Amino acid sequence: MALSGLDIFKKLPKTNCKKCNFPTCLAFAMQVAAGKTEISACPDVSADVVSQIAEATAPPIRPITIGAGDSALKIGEETVMFRHDKRFEHQPGIGLLVTDEMSDETLNNHIKQFNATGFERVGVMMRAEVMAIKSVTGDAERFKAVVKKVVDETQALLVLMSDSADILKAGLDICATRKPLICGVTVDNLDSVAQLAKEYNCPVTVKGETLEQMADLTTKLNAAGVKDIVLYPTTTSVKDRFEQETMIRRLPLKKTYRPLGFPTIVFPCDFTADKDEEIMIASTFVARYSGIIILSTLEPHYTYPLFCLRMNIYTDPQRPMTMEEKVYEFNNPGKDAPILVTTNFSLTYFLVSGEIESSRKPVWLAIQNTEGLSVLTAWSAGKFNAESIAKFIKNSGITEKVSHKNIVIPGYVAELSGDLEEELGPGWKVIVGPREAPSLPGFLKQWQVN
Q1: Phi, psi of 363 (to 5 degrees)
Q2: Domain at 64-314: CATH architecture
Q3: Are 431 and 407 in contact (CB under 8 A)?
Q4: Strand partners of residue 97
Q5: In whole angstroms, what is the distance from residue 99 CA to residue 26 CA?
Q6: Phi-psi region at 2: left, alpha or beta (left = phi > 0; alpha = psi -120 to 50)
Q7: Which site in 2, 235, 253, 444 is 20 to 30 Å from 106, CA atoms measured?
Q8: CATH top-level class for 326-445?
Q9: For residue 74, which of 95, 58, 90 has the smallest C-alpha distance?
Q10: What is the 3-state secondary structure (H, E, C) of the chain?
């Protein structure tokens, strides 16, 4: 059971020394209980207490980091079954599978495909992060050569796959600094692979067909001092795997069952050789909790919908995606170009900016901070009104870049035009633009400075 703030407070020195950057020990204890700071931030608490509290306040699903530096992938740490309960913490990594039995030409094509994959959507770059390298030949030198090629030619986060500790070690000797995920621990190789995980300080996967098998392996790994674990159920039935993913999430969250409190990895190609079906299965596990999803292809027509699904599910529903408040330039605007104003909800911005770009007309697009609300929502909430728009325009510096005093507002807030003219002052004219973004190109073609 999780400790309360008062439970934690009782274990603190109660000196109110402020070394933790909180005013009192009680305030610090409350932040620890809420998961907003670590108990280790108190320099005067004993190591035993740190261990006790860290264990009691740890998230039910352990956070695991794959890779190092800014590009590292964090998975796990989830606290809810459903996104609408709060939010999902970490989006799943998506990756590409290569094997050491591939020809050099096929391997080169896969590497090129990985490096070329990337799509921009609402200002966010969506791309694959992981390459899984699987030993099929059983030849340590060939596996080592493939790992080196991937390391030399990509910035991918790595998953090394073999049941042989010797082959895994050969790969680790090449890429240890990238902190790859070692895949994987089985009943037969537990001791040797656990030793590699400790020697190279890398996370490992445990492979098992049933939840009971995996729970037994994670318990033994923990006893051996290996804590960073990813689960790899090896069942080949989509239905069974779907149920396992649900139970792997439910048991730690609802029953505090630590042996299964880890993120998972899935290979949709384990279930089918049909690429269309593979992507459908992958989408199932984007929605149903998998931490890493490894595909046999990253062809754009397959992966773009998958990336969009991942973005939609793993965007925090409590925090709208926003754009920076400023005046954006499109198609080299000059002094006669129109000034369009709208809100900083990212979807609004990208719909409007896309239509402006396609029109090829020069435009100044003034984006006002409305805390990520859309036009009508912001207007209803009083965050997009004559006063706020006028204040933003006057402080934006746009008046120094144009030779006119015309401003275009969205058609949905046409009733603001009179009040906005008064707020902007003498000489300003407010023009009511289209209600919907697709009508902007036609509107801009008719634009003339008045």
Answers
A1: -145, 145
A2: Alpha-Beta Barrel (3.20)
A3: yes
A4: 132
A5: 54
A6: beta
A7: 235
A8: alpha beta
A9: 90
A10: CCCCHHHHHCCCCCCCCCCCCCCCHHHHHHHHHCCCCCHHHCCCCCHHHHHHHHHHHCCCCCCEEECCHHHCEEECCCCCCCHHHCCCCCCCEEEEEEECCCCHHHHHHHHHHHHHCCEEECCEEECCCEEEEECCCCCHHHHHHHHHHHHHHCCCEEEEECCCHHHHHHHHHHHHHHCCEEEEECCCCHHHHHHHHHHHCCCEEEEECCHHHHHHHHHHHHHCCCCCEEEEECCCCHHHHHHHHHHHHHHHHHHCCHHHCCCEEECHHHCCCCHHHHHHHHHHHHHCCCCEEEECCCCHHHHHHHHHHHHHHHCCCCCCCECCCEEEEECCCCCCCCEEEEECEHHHHHHHHHHHHHHCCCEEEEEECCCCCCHHHHHHCCCCCHHHHHHHHHHHCHHHCCCCCEEEECHHHHHHHHHHHHHHCCCCEEEECCCCHHHHHHHHHCCCCC
Q: Are 185 and 211 in contact (CB under 8 A)?
A: no
Q: Minimal CA–CA distance to 398: which of 327, 321, 323, 301? A: 327
**Can you give the pLDDT of all 450 residues of the chain as single tens digits?**
467 788 888 888 888 998 898 999 999 988 888 777 888 889 888 888 887 777 777 788 999 999 998 889 999 999 889 888 888 889 999 999 999 999 999 999 999 999 999 988 777 889 999 999 999 999 999 999 999 999 999 999 999 999 999 999 999 999 999 999 999 899 999 999 999 999 999 999 999 999 999 999 999 999 999 999 999 999 989 999 999 999 999 999 999 899 999 999 999 999 999 999 999 999 999 998 999 999 999 999 999 999 999 998 998 777 777 888 999 999 999 999 999 999 999 889 989 999 999 999 999 999 999 988 999 999 999 999 999 999 999 999 999 999 999 999 999 999 999 999 999 999 999 999 999 999 999 999 988 766
Q: What is the pTM of this model?
A: 0.77
How is residue 109 written in tokens? 């094509």
Going from N- to C-terminal start, the domains of the chain cover: 5-57, 64-314, 326-445
